[in-house]
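Summary of Year 1 activities. Much of the first year was spent building the evaluation harness for sequence design. The harness presents a backbone, in tokenized form, and records the residue chosen at every position. We chose the following record to illustrate the format because it has been used consistently in internal testing since the harness was completed.
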């Protein structure tokens, strides 16, 4: 479907927001229908003119404190936001301009970022399938994947687009997606995912990780990883070097060198929670310190071993990760394993989150909402206060929050990319606590829905 652009006046004339009960209906749908678009998908790539103004936008302005200095509420005010050429051009006192789009007092937050997901292989968009009975651990799952991937690849582009639409409905405009690079898929999964991302580029962005799901050496993925590294992917991935490949040093040395040779980042799946997991973390820290160019662009996904360490060891490793600028991408596991995310944050470790699987042969519990992940983190770590809840928002946004820890306004700023979610909430704390619904999503100035 080709993108259509509406003039600002035409959009305003045809698409004044309408209220239906408590649901704000983005009447961009009405404009789309009037133009008789064949595909009336809510999450189409259609955009309006790049320059427009939102009025009645609720922004956080500070914290209110009690006599003991504790944050008890968040102060807010209504503003007008001018958007031009994909960026925030001006932030001004609220205006009643007739040609501005009325945001109806919705809370404006940075749009969300899912930093660990597999867009290339999913059942989503097709019939429901629960996880099959597993046998043989991870290597048993590798054998299963080798059987089912050829069939999954047939509709991989379509299903990736459906997953992207699910993420968009939950306020996400950006993802870091791992994509299988191994002898079964070769580079087919990559090409099919790249097509989906191209089709959705007006409303969604991504960075890609070349992921040897079947091991670097357990199945000979080396030639395919080398080929993928020559493309415009962003990260070289990996998985459990000891339990899959049987050698930490050999696999990690290959991964690090490939990243260095092609100026890529690194993002390693590490599920191993025993001695081998700790050795892998320490080995990677050493390699990054030996190659400072990798600082700030190296990540460990899951890294469950951190949740198995004694408190003193957690603190030690967290400090080393912070010094090496190695980030942790966590899906916020709970139950028998609690990740030390507060300790990581205290040591300046970048912590981000993602859905990982939505519904596939690994897992079926993904919701598509990283705001729900922030809510889960707040519950797991007892962040029930106004201040604590508001700080958990950074997990959904992968960093930016409207207010800093002192209550100073830090987002949005003039010049920021217009990547915006408007939610039915009074403040960040409520949005996290209630997993508030997203009513309007903007990516690089494009109104997605």
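For this record, the design step produced the sequence shown next.
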């Amino acid at each position: 479907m080709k993108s259509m652009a509406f003039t600002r006046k035409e959009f305003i004339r045809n698409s004044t927001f309408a209220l239906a009960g408590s649901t704000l209906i983005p009447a961009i749908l009405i404009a789309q229908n009037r133009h008789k678009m064949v595909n009336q998908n809510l999450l189409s790539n259609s955009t309006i003119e790049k320059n427009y103004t939102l009025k009645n936008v609720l922004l956080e302005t500070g914290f209110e404190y009690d006599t003991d200095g504790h944050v008890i509420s968040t102060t807010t005010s209504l503003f007008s936001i001018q958007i031009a050429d994909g960026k925030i051009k001006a932030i001004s006192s609220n205006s009643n301009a007739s040609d501005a789009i009325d945001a109806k007092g919705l809370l404006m937050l940075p749009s969300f970022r899912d930093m660990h997901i597999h867009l290339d292989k999913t059942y989503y968009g097709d019939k429901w399938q629960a996880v099959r009975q597993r046998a043989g651990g991870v290597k048993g799952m590798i054998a299963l994947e080798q059987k089912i991937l050829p069939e999954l690849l047939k509709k991989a582009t379509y299903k990736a687009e459906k997953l992207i639409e699910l993420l968009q409905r939950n306020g996400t405009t950006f993802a870091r997606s791992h994509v299988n690079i191994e002898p079964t898929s070769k580079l087919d999964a990559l090409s099919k995912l790249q097509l989906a991302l191209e089709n959705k580029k007006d409303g969604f962005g991504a960075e890609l990780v070349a992921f040897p799901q079947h091991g670097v050496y357990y199945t000979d993925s080396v030639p395919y990883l080398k080929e993928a590294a020559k493309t415009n992917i962003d990260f070289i991935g990996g998985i459990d070097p000891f339990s899959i490949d049987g050698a930490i040093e050999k696999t990690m040395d290959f991964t690090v060198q490939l990243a260095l040779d092609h100026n890529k980042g690194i993002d390693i799946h590490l599920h191993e929670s025993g001695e081998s997991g700790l050795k892998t973390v320490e080995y990677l820290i050493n390699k990054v310190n030996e190659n400072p160019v990798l600082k700030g662009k190296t990540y460990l996904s899951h890294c469950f071993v951190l949740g198995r360490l004694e408190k003193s060891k957690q603190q030690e490793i967290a400090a080393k990760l912070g010094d090496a600028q190695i980030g942790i991408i966590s899906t916020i596991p709970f139950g028998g394993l609690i990740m030390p995310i507060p300790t990581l944050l205290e040591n300046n470790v970048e912590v981000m989150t993602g859905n990982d699987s939505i519904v596939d042969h690994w897992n079926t519990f993904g919701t598509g909402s990283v705001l729900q992940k922030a809510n889960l983190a707040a519950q797991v770590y007892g962040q029930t206060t106004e201040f604590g809840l508001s700080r958990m928002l950074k997990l959904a946004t992968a960093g930016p929050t409207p207010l800093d820890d002192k209550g100073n306004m830090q987002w949005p700023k003039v010049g920021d990319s217009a990547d915006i979610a408007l939610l039915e909430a009074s403040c960040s704390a409520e949005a996290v606590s209630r997993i508030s619904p997203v009513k309007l999503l903007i990516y690089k100035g494009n109104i997605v829905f």
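The two ends are 16 Å apart (CA to CA). Quantitative recovery figures across the full test set are reported in Table 2.
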